[in-house]
UniProtKB/TrEMBL annotation:
Domain of life according to the entry: Bacteria
Keywords: Membrane, Transmembrane, Transmembrane helix
Protein name: PAP2 superfamily protein
Gene3D superfamilies noted in UniProt: Phosphatidic acid phosphatase type 2/haloperoxidase (1.20.144.10)
Organismal lineage: Bacteria, Bacillati, Actinomycetota, Actinomycetes, Micromonosporales
Amino acid sequence: MTAVASRQAHADTTRTVSAGGWHSISPLLVAVLSATGAYLVHRVFIRTTLGQSVDTAAMRGGDVRHEQVTEVLSRTLGATQLAVLAVVCLVAAVVGALRRRFDLSIGAALLVVAANVACQQFKAHLDRPDLDGSGMPNSFPSGHTAAAASVAFVLILAFPRALRGAMGLIGAAYVTLVAVATVWAEWHRPSDTVAALLIVLACGALITWVIRLRRWGGPRPSSTPARVATLPLALVGAVSAAAFTIGLAALVLSERVLPDLVTGRFAFFTGVAGIVAAVAVTFHLWVRVTAGDPLSGSDNGGNAR
């Protein structure tokens, strides 16, 4: 019996170490995949003629004339100012302090700074060859989308685990409105917003990885993500990704084989489908990444916060 118990204890320990290792390394994997995705978006939609043509067609097709829709989009763009970022960082710091998680407070501030500075630096230094003849300057990636996504990501990270699902859904809806509004206003192409989302996710996942390395070896709570957010996000992501794939195929066919096969409005809604899919995927991953964070600063099995 002693030998059997010893072998069982050894097996349990091995599984715990393996789970703890995956718990700590998974954010790094998400960061690498997100950065790679942003690079591929740039290569396809900025560095190729076909990619630029499709991207620009989606932007120019957003001729929204409905008065109420226009007002909502305009107000949404106006809500992504630096003051909002500062207020959210302050809220995150207060929530982190109340939860005795000062590492999350610092991480939240770093997320906002790193994501927005990275996007601004990329926009300032990346070259955009004029392959589609639009003559427009580089707008890759979208600063407004990065600001909105970093705000939502910070709130999901800083708030208690019980609220992260709801925050994920609210944040995803807000970021979708901001991203679509920038395309509608012809400030950005759809690829600009998708790349911004991936850059924010890469920064957030990298910071989460560092936080978990710092807490390596401590007790780890259940990492089950909030299904109230992950299930709807997965469903919306799957449907919108399918719509985007079909629409993109039609756009490519129109650009290469059958000119005027689709309208500008069709191109715009194809871009919107791609944006919705990107928001759903990035928020789904972020909710899952943050789900396994320790519950409190003590991590001693106390009440969840």
